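[Q] Does anyone have a clean structure-token version of this?
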Amino acid sequence: QGPIDWTRIADANVSFAYIKATEGGDFVDKRFQLNWLEAHKAGIARGAYHFFTQCRSGREQAAIFIRTVPKHTDALPHAVDAEHMGPCKTLPQIKDVVGELRTFINLVGAHYGKRPLIYTTLEFHHAHLRGKLKTERFWIRSLVTPPRIRQQSWVIWQYHNRGRRPGVSGPVDLNVAREPLPMITK
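[A] Here you go.
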């Protein structure tokens, strides 16, 4: 989205934000550190997220996330974005998607003291997660209609992917929390 005016976002009654930190095993968002600090200064509860690829092990992906995202007790539980992506360009695709995702979750949860949320779509859920990871909490992308999966375990619902908010140029994802997010510590 380019530069973000976090004070204007806070003035628009945005109560929380998830900020992209990393992707795969070698990408760090160049604006992450600034956005992380500015969101905090503006009084917005914030968490970081990692875009999980099927081209690197869960251990490699957790390592880059942990190196990038500071440990703050006031941060929301971080999140791992698990959705379909294109084929790996230079590396072989991982064979056990759920196993590698579980490794990422375990390492990140142990480091920060809070298990990360799993952001997913209906399509990825049905392809990989159905009947698995039953004790985890989810952030479900379900545009327009409330989530039809993980009825008891979703805590955030992404209901829009082209929203507008003052302080951000271009579209943003809009989400609602089912429970007060700062209280999530499991």
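[Q] Thanks! Anything notable?
[A] The helical segments are 6-11, 32-41, 58-68, 97-112, 122-129.
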